[in-house]
Write a structure and sequence with these properties.
By secondary structure, the protein is of the alpha/beta class. Helices cover 48% and strands 14% of the residues. Strand 7 (261-266), helix 11 (272-286) and strand 8 (294-299) form a beta-alpha-beta unit. It starts with a strand and ends with a helix. The relative contact order is 0.17. Bound molecules: 5-phosphoarabinonic acid.
Length: 428
Amino acid sequence: MKNVSINTKQALKHIPTPLVEAVSEQVYNGYKTLIRRNGPGNDFLGWMDLPVNPDKKLLERIKNDVNEQKKKSDIIVVIGIGGSYLGARAVTEALNFSRKPSFPEIAFAGNNLNALDLSLLMDKLDKRNYSIVVISKSGTTTEPAIAFRILRQHLIKKYGENEAANRIIAITDKSRGTLKNLSDMCGYPTYIIPDDVGGRFSVLTPVGLLPIALAGYDIEKILEGAGAIAEMCLDENQAIYSPAYQYAIARNVLYAAGFDIEILVNYLDNLNYVSEWWKQLYGESEGKDGKGLFPASVSNTTDLHSLGQFIQGGTRKLFETVLQVDRVKYDITVPEIDGDIDNLNYVAGKSLHQINKIAQKATTSAHLEGGVPNITIAIPQISEYSLGQLIYMFEFACGISGYTIEVNPFDQPDVENYKSKMKKLLKG
Ligand code: PA5
């Protein structure tokens, strides 16, 4: 199996060696803090071991639930927000090109307060068989709780209380929170989110694994890919060669050199939710105590016609991390036409993916000339295995980076601020 790899040479080319060396030492200290599990937030490091010893019983239970749901549901509604949905959405959208029609469709809900989304979904659910997977670690988050109240009522109306109870699965804390209490009261089966895994690091727990498996994708391959990176990262002699460690060095050196906005760039829009997941992971983990790289994203070539101007010539504090996909499953070759009336025969015979790769090469070169350093992450092809590798790589590099800039990467104290104001206003 070919592995995800990273190229940081171009990114670091113009950075003075003493700065690279100084930051590399800080990153090494960050790595040691993470690996020795003695930094702030060290009670939230359970994600590090998830792919190392996959929980066989959990995988078996998921398999059974998938078989059951395949028989009775055309649609699975996954209710959750932030870390309780972005990982599953990232993986299912990235793999959508290989979707098997014998598995249910996945619909996401409870990740915003847009009534239009929910009413369009309910119109669809009126006509199809469906079940609900509701995910919330705290069990009290407003958006998914509201969506669950509305959709649970819809489900009960459609199937009655008893059958509805066979069509709801909750993923939540083992003992705390409203969702846990409600599930116990109504007899809904629950999967547990481990205490030592925070929301944005939970994609390899039932939070991500159950919805991804319900969509028909191979979760064991995801864990295998993640495990291959974990093996390197957790071995103090090998870690420095891992793409996670190399990524942590490059982005922290660039941050220290004054580049404080990192743009994750893709050239295939089925990776857009990988970017959304990545933004949450890094934004919530690093952005505190007045520090942190601001994580942004673009999807090219679409965004070359919108943000491209800014990236090429605007404020010079950006760097790019490009997700480069080497091979795609579906491609189309541009036909040659007689007379070349649209002046496009110069691309005839080339496939869209070949042209896309040339666009990437040209853009990277132009952006480098414009003073935008470039890290490239090469993905052999989009698959469960490579997505597993990416997930673990980004999580591990995030842990190292947080400790490198001396923040606790595993809490999010500042999000409480708006929440308490909102609750106060809602309660009048
Ligand atoms: O990373 C986090 O902890 C958060 O982004 C949560 O995932 C998000 O707020 C959803 O929380 P919960 O799962 O408690 O509903």
